[in-house]
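Illustration 12: Odorant receptor 24a-like.
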Amino acid sequence: MTKGNCGTITELVDAISLMTTSLMAVLKILLPWSHRRRVASLVISVVQDWSQVNSKKCQEVMLRYAFIGRVVFIVQMSGAYMTIIPLILTRLPRSVELIDADNRSLFLRNIPIGPRCWVSLEISTFTYSLYYIFVCVHLFILATSYLGGDVFAFGLAMHLCGQFELLYRSFEKFDGNETSVIQRKIVSQFAKRHNSLLNLADDFETAFSLLILFELGANAFIISISEIILLRAIKIGDTQIISAMAIRIYLMYIQIFMYSYIGEHLSRQAEKLQVSIYSSRWYKLPPIIVRDLKFIMMRNNHLFHLTAGKIWNMDYQNFKFIVKSMFSYFSILRLMIKD
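Figure caption equivalent — predicted structure in token form:
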């Protein structure tokens, strides 16, 4: 390995981004594993819900949310793999000749990502080929684990949103004309299901909260260094680096937006239950049933929020604040580099 500062700025940023995302990929495996009982309860509930679908309307609602999760999965994973393939095809395993600033010829060996000067010319061709294959395999595993953890969490959250919607829709059919025994049974089933969904939402928040915090930190770090390189590239007019950094910054914002989308929709679906109860014909119900409904509404007063490490609520409002803060930082950097 060649020691010292070598390689282009883009290659160095790629190497730093690779190390950061590799660490995050490990965390996206270890942190959910540390909460495996909570994650298992979420997965088991998904299997049970799909095995107990008893009406076409329920199936349509569940399929709608499953479709959203499937689209995100296909877009994210195909986008990740389509990003890796050009890296490999544009840097096939061979030696290349480059001209440095002193007009001297340099012979380097290609690798899919990172500074090519880090690969020694003294190693054998067989060792170099094995190293190249290892890097390629690492990139595909990294993409699968890094984005796979996000789309897995997104799919679980979308299913929870669907179950909340089914719950408040089921209460809309409660017209108050049933017998007192049936009314008690309906309210009891509603309360149990409501409590179960809130517990599942808490399990989701506990299992992924710390992971989201690390995700925010890692993405903010990658965005920051990418913005510095982007400003320097704009200053010298390097369109290749400009496009590469712009795409990287865009992808990092997409990752943050995914969790903001999850938090926003889970909170909204949970809040709609109060509206559903209030909009029902509760005035036709006996006082004892109305009292039970009040307890359910009081239980829902504790609003659900998906957080990043119990510090930062993940929703649209805070996502806009993050974007504004990063662009303010970008403006300050631009003035500093300009001066």
